[in-house]
Amino acid sequence: MPRSGGASQVRAWRPEVPGVTEVLHAHLVGHAYPAHTHDTWTLLLVDDGAVVYDLDRHRHDTSRARVTVLPPGVPHDGRPATGHGFRKRVVYLDAAVLGEGRTGRAVDHPGWADPVLHSGLDHLHRVLTRPEEAFEAEGRLALVVERLRGHLPGSGDERVPAPGAPTRRLARELRELLDASVVPGITLARAGHLLDAPESTLVRAFSAEYGIPPHRYLTGRRLDRARRLLLAGERAAEVAVAVGFHDQAHLSRHFRRLMGVPPGQFARVARTAQPAA
Known about the structure:
Keywords: DNA-binding, Transcription, Transcription regulation
Order of helices and strands: EEEEEEEEEHEHHHHHHHHH
GO molecular function, one term: DNA-binding transcription factor activity
Number of strands: 10
Pfam families: AraC_binding (PF02311), HTH_18 (PF12833)
Shape: globular
Structural class: alpha+beta
InterPro entries: AraC-bd, AraC_XylS_family_regulators, Homeodomain-like_sf, HTH-like, HTH_AraC
Oligomer: single chain
CATH superfamily of the largest domain: Jelly Rolls
Protein name: AraC-type DNA-binding protein
């Protein structure tokens, strides 16, 4: 990424992903945050430049290799470490997502050079820019939260799978839920509630059992239905909505990724390839 420069820019939105209250992407030049608090957990990536901040009156810094986590209710400020400014991406999580009893640990150790966590949060940001991929974002968020809990162990507040429910059974039960919800979809939070298991456990169990994460399985089921409707002569725009995609562009992106051609071309070629009567 090029060196920061130019005017400050900010983009913020609230995705339809349970637990995420806001996403912020910013390029800030010559700006310093005064001391303030949030009622959310703040997950920060710095993509260019570096940031110096005080958290609970203790000095810290962060740069591209680190993930910074600021707890709710604790005063902090922020300012660029150089005159070039910085670029950052932030996910704000509802305070309940990480549970209680982690604030003190986060104040003492608010950042880590953890490549797995950094990569997971980076992928989460990429998916959060696409509203139609909310189910995938849920799964990626679950794994990020699981990793964070490893850095910030709490007081045993996480739910665990019901006694006697092995991960293979959880995977099969989640698959049944997905099969029953191909068109309307289902949130991972709802599935976790129905199966009495943490979202991260569901993602890991399903991926281990079937070799793909839940969001990719659901997309595959929708694409199967889309192919049948396209071969029956239905228009791509109508097919997209009928099988559970957000719109035609959403269908086209996944269809091309799987089949190598857009749905319209697939349908035309399939029709011309039919054997003569």
